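Protocol step 4 of 5: obtain the predicted structure for the target chain.
Materials: sequence only (see below). No template structures provided, no constraints applied. The aim of this step is simply to have a reference model before the mutagenesis design in step 5. Sequence pasted as it appears in the construct record:
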Amino acid sequence: MAVNENAELEELIRNATSGGVSTPITESEPTEEGDGLDFDTLLLVARRSLLWLVLLIGLGLTGSWLFLRYTKPVYRSSSILKIDERTEAGALGLGTLGLSSDNQQSINSLSGEIELIKSNIIYRRLRDSLDLNVNYYVEGTVLESELYGISPFRVEYQGSILYNIKFNLKFINSRRFQISFILNGQEQKIENNINTLFDINGMKLLVQPTRLFGRNVIDNNYHFIINDEAAINGYLDQNLLVEIINPSANTIRISFQEFNPVKARAIINKIDTVYLQEKLVQKRAASAQTLRFLDQQLNENRRNLQGAEENLQNFVRRTKTYDVRSNVAEVKGKVETLEEARISLVEKLQLLSDLEGMVERESLTPREDITIKESIPGLSTLGDAQLTQQLGELNALLFDLRRVERSNRETTEAVQSRLDKIEYIKSNIRRTLLQRQRQLRNDLTKLIRKSESLDAELQRLPERATEEDRLKRPLTQYINTYTMLMAKKADFNIAIAGTTPDFQILSPASMPTAPISPVRLMVYAIGLASGIVLGLGLIAVRYLMHNTVTNVRELERATTASVLGVIPTYDKEKMAISKLVVDKNPKSAISESIRSIRTNLDFISSSKKKRMISVTSTVSGEGKTFVSVNLGGIIALSEQRVVILDLDMRKPKVNLAFGADNVKGVSTILIDKHTVLECVQHTSIPTLDFISAGPTPPNPSELILSPRFDEMLAELHQVYDVILIDTPPVGLVTDGILIMRKADIPIYIVRANYSKKSFLKNINKLIRANNFTRLCTILNDARATGLYGYGYGYGYGYGQGYYEDIKPVESPLTRLRKRFS
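Step 4 output (structure tokens):
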């Protein structure tokens, strides 16, 4: 919500500043003062949170003690096993077939052994050999204890067994007992004699004493639980841990954790025993199953291989080729050859066309010492002797014509006869060129058809190649698989012949003496750390949530505007609306603080006799009207004529402060409905007057921008020394900024413990955007202990008895509570 509020506020101020004559800010904003970590505020929050920090640390340590008090200690018993696969195949010169000494292979092999140990096969043997079906407990003062192997009684059961139900047992005397349990949400109680079979909802139950049964069992409360297979398996799964210690040495550790150390050790010892037995059984069964699987895969692969061979043979018969890719290269070579021939034919056609143009233009070489082949180098590529001869004759005739024309006119017989010969030879050349062009075009057409045929064949070859690869792929796979299966079967038979299991207990299960959890020192450390972290987190949260201005030091750090003064909290009465109080309590701390502000204003504007002061704030509720009214009253008490204008026409409050009506005022003056003199209202202070806002107009901003507003100010300056304007909040509307531009001293109100810190950054932006170099700030409603950020206040403890405010006597408990508040 704070981020959204700040964003909206910045947008409103940006819109407001852009609506006036000031130039919009186009460059990046400079870094605001006060950014970063505020060590003063952090220290204040830490001091106020010190008691909470101590309480949270105590809470953490208390939680650790309670955890240790009501948590059962867990014990762990472990054994270390060495598992080897000893093979005699190496002695036969066959190597360790099927067995790899690679570290990863060892890990994979040991992982399989771990899964065997944690399988239901081992769990079933444990249930059969250990007494895990019934758990016996004795209830202590706080915790219960399991009586594994030391229970003073045993239960036998048959029929419709009630599994996983807690049966509470209390011995009435040495021969009689009472059993209670909850079934279907109802508690049931049964009394019976020891060694006497009785019925519980279809379950036959018999309670028998053991050798540990004595007179002291009467004083204790017992209960037992009959576990089903799923409960036992879940219990073993949850508490059994099998891990690899050294893959190279094939060693594993089997651990079991339990609340009862005797039971943990017994389970580990029994696992070591039943594992060897099951390993031998599983080895024989696995070998037989593996051989059956290999035979099955060989038969199936043999059938698949035959099918793949037949498919490839059919493909060869249909395409009449054994290697499609070699055909691709051959066809590509033919296509390239045809393309070269086509290019040559095109060039020849172009040459014939050029020759035809040269003949028509008679642009052959007219020199006799240069042959036609030397003149036209491409003519030799045609290989046409007739055409070459005709062109040579034409060239000679043209040369002869040029020679005769030098000494004869064009109409002479010598010239005309030569022209006729030239025309005759040109007609012969045309016929020859036409025949040659027709022949070349026919050859080009045939070549293109053949090339298209080869292209079509080349386009079909990838499809054939893909089909060939598709047929060869399963064939190769089946061949490799068949060969691999045959080799694996041979290797497996050899490995079975020379492999025997080797199992060795390197470290038997020991009786655990100390619990593995909870660790007392660690639990207390966690409790202490948790308390400290929660305390620091509380300090951080309170610091981050501390987003309001609390003292004048924060105001000075975060803004570039001057601070006129600080107005303390007014504790005389709770005011629903702002009031004039300086005339009623002239010697109070609040009156003195406002007098100090008046003095500072005199220093700022000492050269001016007539002053206009505007008072604004960011949002409503920061004490803008209260400061305006009382500052005007203090200035008026110094024998200066003061008028207060209420320009907050949307939400007028000045008339409420003086208990007057709001029938007419600034809005009616600006629309020329009333004169200034008609709207001036007097107060209890002779030199203090005010003009209320008047009825709310639909266009307050336009009225303020009108020339009538400046005329009204000019009229007031003729009568009053100080014009004090209560403007609307600049964070909500633009009217306040428009008025601040006209004021001699704009004042910005910041309310302690109410105004957000982000408002201070907006003050700096307002100064930069509108060049408000004389903008001043006032901290309002500051508490006595935080007026200046120190441990004393302006109105208390300084000059005892100087003010009328009297600090009440506080009890030590009240002072301590305030110290940490």
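Step 4 remarks: The two ends are 25 Å apart (CA to CA). The chain is about 50% helix and 15% strand.
Proceed to step 5.
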